[in-house]
């Protein structure tokens, strides 16, 4: 009967989604436990059910990324390269299926930086910004990258470049907050810049505004309390 065929289609549709969701949840649980091989298997299983899911590709990329770090720390450079190659591939697939996937842009940019390819990291985020000039997310991620690179340059005694990158990060975040003054991620990033610069009062103010916009940031609540007690 027609209604039976309709019910079968519904069961099939929702059953597929549930299976993909369950496998992703399983993979994330394994990832949180640093059980990378099991996580990879779970995410691959999720992709067999839902092969166009950008989040699953991102999860898989993150797993390979973390696994590569462990291999590198253990002196297994050849295996680390294999893991990183898979991370690159899956971050890029995530962006193929969702060109505005914030976490995938972030993960890929970080991987570029970790493999000493900072030009590709900056180009990735600049290109994302150019295609989404009204969005806050590309600007925030670009500002974070500038600040992280500033810290690297500072450690290398490249102080002029470090200052330029820090100033660029500040300028970008200020432009975000002009148009999006309650953006909790921009406020948090701005607070961090001020904290690094020694402006603890300014950092606390931005952190508090960020927390007001998103009270789920329990770690930030603890950070605010620690800074207030240190003043």
Structure keywords:
single chain, 231 residues, mainly alpha, Serine Threonine Protein Phosphatase 5, Tetratricopeptide repeat
What would your notes on this structure say?
This protein has 231 residues and is mainly α. It has a domain at 8-98: Serine Threonine Protein Phosphatase 5, Tetratricopeptide repeat, CATH 1.25.40.10. The protein has eleven helices and no strands. Helix 5 runs parallel beside helix 7 (136-155) and helix 8 runs antiparallel to helix 9.
Put the structure in a nutshell.
The chain is mainly alpha-helical and 231 residues long. The chain has eleven helices and no strands.
Chart the SSEs and their pairings.
Elements: H1 2-32, H2 36-49, H3 54-73, H4 77-97, H5 102-114, H6 118-131, H7 136-155, H8 159-179, H9 184-196, H10 200-213, H11 218-230
Helix pairs in contact: 1-2, 2-3, 3-4, 3-5, 4-5, 5-6, 5-7, 6-7, 7-8, 7-9, 8-9, 9-10, 10-11
Largest sheet: none
Helix content: over 70%
Q: What proportion strand?
A: under 5%
Low-pLDDT ranges:
1-18
Corresponding CATH architecture of the domain at 8-98:
Alpha Horseshoe
Average pLDDT works out at 90
